């Protein structure tokens, strides 16, 4: 009753409720219910094979094969099955990486976890939590600053994406200290800005504001990073707008107009920020039509940025439209 594939692949200790009869799971036959998607047996066999391939690639130090099989693992469909397998195999996975392969593997993970904020992730990388944690501890045990910076820049964005903001700040704090040690003012400014951004995501405006101000000052003093200066500055102004009432925003509005001109770069997520804030200011003033005008511009300018900002701005646009609709009903 087994087909040839299942006869060859199933281990003797496999649960009988997961055996296949003519490609149908016994559990389905007993319950009379059809399951959607791959069975747990299929997933287990598939992931077990991939882990074996990864182990063989490690042993052979074959980087190309290794990355192919890591891709297969990332694309595996069942979250819990793969997460459990990775958690149990994490230490072997991480500490089996030869020293000369570490940098290339770290670079490879950037494909799945972009180092810019608020990205659209194609795959569910949450299952790599144990692997990333062990990789980080292993990297910290090495006296390789460059590798710490490489992987730290991926890791804090991964933490950020899954809302582990304290953990993201812990990594960023280490990166800030590395930049200070190397007298790297630009790196220090970038990491301080991004440290503050974690507070911004938590809407802790009072904690974020002085850090954005400090980052902007460092960028300005470098004189070669005007674009990044304006980005940090607009982040700082975001905190002020969120903390201020409608009567204290005139000077901020003028500066936002100036920054909007400086950051006017199509398909860049940073360019949407001053327009978003101008929209928020007009909303606070009760000028909803004008707020809609600015947020539509923000959506247009960041449409190709590969971030979640356009979708978030569209959600805000819908909120503004509902406000107009509610006001119209009151007047009728």
Q: Can you describe what's shown?
A:
The chain has 332 residues and is mainly alpha-helical. The chain has a domain at 244-332. Helix content is 71%, strand content 1%. It is built from 16 helices and two strands. A two-stranded antiparallel ribbon has the order 1-2. Helix 9 packs antiparallel against helix 10 (185-201) and helix 12 packs antiparallel against helix 13 (250-262). The termini are far apart. The model is unreliable at 1-32 and 34-38 (pLDDT under 50).
Topology diagram in text:
Elements (H helix, E strand, L loop, with lengths): L3 H6 L10 E2 L2 E2 H6 L8 H21 L2 H13 L3 H17 L3 H11 L19 H12 L4 H17 L3 H17 L3 H17 L3 H18 L3 H18 L6 H13 L9 H14 L2 H14 L7 H23 L1
Antiparallel strand pairs: 1-2
Helix pairs in contact: 3-4, 3-5, 5-7, 6-8, 7-8, 8-9, 9-10, 10-11, 10-12, 11-12, 12-13, 12-14, 13-14, 14-15, 15-16
**Would you report the number of β strands?**
2
The helix tally amounts to: 16
Order of helices and strands: HEEHHHHHHHHHHHHHHH
The major sheet is characterized as: 2 strands, antiparallel
Strand order of the largest sheet: 1-2
> What structural category arises from helix and sheet content?
mainly alpha
